[in-house]
Amino acid sequence: MIEYENVLTTCPYCGTGCALHLQVLDQKLVGVLPAKNHVISEGGLCIKGWNVHAFVNHPDRLKKPLIRKNGKLEEATWDEALKLVADKLGEIKAQSGPDSIAFLSSAKCTNEENYLLQKFARAVIGTNNIDHCARL
Ligand code: SF4
């Protein structure tokens, strides 16, 4: 028996917030349909929204962090990658001060994730150097 489901969600590509239905066939994402009655997109999607499903199962998609070791990128665990980032941020802050660090957030993140990044920049690192790609 074939299982088919439409899953209502928000397009991850920009801050406009268009709604779309992910078409899931036998638990595999196969396509996208616009959400006809959504207050923002009103049944429309741009070319990026129409192709949201393409990156999910793409063979080139990065699914694990990579760390450069001896000049070569190698797969790492999330714990290893996050520890490396935390150690490097701590080193830079200790050597050159908090304003030597800057953060650039993304329209692909949720409002809550963007809020957390500015909070981390200001409260943990101690810098106001925080910006967002929607302004670029
Ligand atoms: S469909 Fe296009 S305009 Fe709408 S949220 Fe996605 S990327 Fe932005």
The arrangement of helices and strands along the chain is: EEEHHEEHEHE
- Give the total of domains: 2
Structural class: alpha+beta
User: If you average the pLDDT, what whole number results?
Assistant: 93
Cα distance spanning the termini: 49 Å
Please give the count of helices: 4
Largest sheet data? 3 strands, antiparallel
Molecular shape: flat
Beta-sheet strand percentage? 25-35%
Relevant terms:
2 domains; N-terminal domain of TfIIb; binds iron/sulfur cluster; 3-stranded antiparallel sheet; alpha+beta
Written description of the protein model:
31% of the residues lie in helices and 26% in strands. The protein is α+β, with helices and mostly antiparallel strands and 136 residues long. The chain folds into 2 domains: 4-56, N-terminal domain of TfIIb, CATH 2.20.25.90; 66-135, no CATH class. It has a 3-stranded antiparallel beta sheet. The chain has a two-stranded antiparallel sheet with strand order 4-5. Strands 6-7 form a two-stranded parallel ribbon. A hairpin with a 2-residue loop joins strand 2 and strand 3. The longest helix is centred in the middle third of the chain and has 19 residues, at 78-96. The protein is flat and about 60 Å long. The model has no long low-confidence stretch (mean pLDDT 93). Residues 11, 13-14, 16-18, 41, 45-46, 48-49 line the site of iron/sulfur cluster.
